[in-house]
């Protein structure tokens, strides 16, 4: 019985629970380590994202016989130039729209209250069952808004903490560009034989999954934000640039992100000119159709191979556990875990097949 997979998995789960239990009881011992990890985790993640986004550029430059230090200097200079262009060209427009939004906040708030009052008056003429459905939907939307607000607050807190640690981001980023080939050997050289090859393959698969997800998701989000911005400009929607930037970050969240991104656009359109709601809906529908039929299949392909329902479940669970940061990292963390589990399963099947052949031989 001890050789059965279900028994070994059960024992492993029990041991993991015991380790977590006793770790929580003596967690005060590891408090300094936890503080250090929390201090560096966000800059490390940002540095890793920048690395995966610029790694294809580095590979291209080095294929043209440019040395490693030269490719790093070119990439860093290019990022600084892009940042300077963004601040000088887009920054004033963003500032102007933010100021307009702040100045018009009382008016927008009054229009929103009028809209809620109008909907409340209409409920009197609806059947009781439909009124109950509307009330339930309203409560659900309010609960989602509260949770989303918490995620935004947590994101802003993390963002301002990252400002104080901003010096670590370029450090991690440049270090990864310089020595990224050395990271995996440090781990798999600790092993030998077949186990070494398995660890090497697993690390390679993890690297491929993270590269595909980060590069693909950022490219998709940028293209979608550009399409949405053009559509909102054609409609003449107020705060088009702010809404497009908001959509850029929300589209980093698979499946759910685009629906979160369109919510403030619909509200602003309805409070400005109700007929603009139809235009915003059409722009969103066209952008999503282009994404689902052209962009995502060609950019992401089947690299992650995760069912949409699984993605939604992961996002909701990660959001409740770790807030906005959990929503962003939940899917790639799951993808990495899936790669590890799949490689473990394949290795066990390979060992079992080899043992069967030895017995038959």
Overall description:
- The chain has helices at 5-25, 31-63, 68-103, 105-123, 128-164, 168-188, 193-235, 240-250, 257-272, 276-299, 308-360.
- The protein is mostly helical.
- It is globular and about 75 Å long.
- The mean pLDDT is 76.
Strand content: under 5%
Query: Which segments are poorly predicted (pLDDT under 50) over 5 or more consecutive residues?
Result: none
From the spread of the alpha carbons, the general shape counts as globular
Order of helices and strands: HHHHHHHHHHH
Global Rg: 25 Å
CA-CA gap between termini: 25 Å
Averaging pLDDT over every residue, what do you get? 76
**Count, helices:** 11
Summarize the amount of helix as a percent range. Answer: over 70%
**Main sheet specs:** none
How many distinct beta strands? 0
Short note summarizing the structure:
This protein has a domain at 191-361. It has eleven helices and no strands. It has helices spanning 5-25, 31-63, 68-103, 105-123, 128-164, 168-188, 193-235, 240-250, 257-272, 276-299, 308-360.
What layout of secondary structure does this protein have?
Layout: H1 5-25, H2 31-63, H3 68-103, H4 105-123, H5 128-164, H6 168-188, H7 193-235, H8 240-250, H9 257-272, H10 276-299, H11 308-360
Helix pairs in contact: 2-3, 2-6, 5-11, 6-7, 7-8, 7-10, 7-11, 8-9, 9-10
List keywords for this structure.
mainly alpha, 361 residues
